[in-house]
Amino acid sequence: MPEDDDPASPRREDSEVDEALDESFPASDPRSWSLGLNLPNGEEPDHPPAPHNLPARFANAWNAHDAEALAGLFADNADFVNVVGLWWRDRDAIRKAHAYGFKVFFAQARLDIEQVEVRRLGLPVAVIHARWKLTGQTPRSGGRATERQGVLQFVAERQGHDDWIIVAAQNTERIRGAETFEAGDGSVQPA
């Protein structure tokens, strides 16, 4: 049996490799924006390119309650999975869902982006994580909603020199003290 196929031979696990790569090019390090590639038009590797701006543009459209502007950040065939797992499969569905939300749940809501990290996957693609805070949601049951927190993940594709478009998004709620969810008795609860 070749040494590489021997299950007993020491190997680095995929997660160890990922950690080593992250240590080499942390997202906050300007070198991670270029990944050592020759950038077009003299773009400087220590100047953050446009994918860094997508979360702020998303929040600006959100805070204006402008579903059209928000959907305009997405490709025609983009995917968006929201915090409860609803999957919208094109720009129009993303627009309609947010227009509904802005009228029903988020009419007074404010979305603040607190942290952004970008990992460039070559020149034309970037993965963007943005930690967010939401205040002012209108609860269905009346009363007052508490602050929510979460992480948005965007996969964006470069269009031209400095224009980027979101091709996929995943929004994940952060629940303090929870590590997972447990299902039982017809409901799912943080655990």
How does this structure look, described?
The protein is globular. A hairpin with a 3-residue loop joins strand 5 and strand 6. The protein has five helices and eight strands, in the order H-H-H-H-E-E-H-E-E-E-E-E-E. The strands form two sheets. Strands 2-1-6-5-4-3 form a six-stranded mixed sheet. 23% of the residues lie in helices and 34% in strands.
Question: Would you spell out the secondary-structure blueprint of this structure?
Answer:
Layout: H1 14-24, H2 31-34, H3 54-63, H4 67-71, E1 74-81, E2 87-88, H5 91-104, E3 110-120, E4 125-135, E5 148-159, E6 163-174, E7 181-184, E8 187-190
Parallel strand pairs: 1-6
Antiparallel strand pairs: 1-2, 3-4, 4-5, 5-6, 7-8
Descriptive keywords:
191 residues; two-stranded antiparallel sheet; globular
User: How would you state the average pLDDT, rounded?
Assistant: 80
What portion of the residues fall into strands of 2 or more residues? 25-35%
What is the string of helix and strand elements?
HHHHEEHEEEEEE
Shape: globular
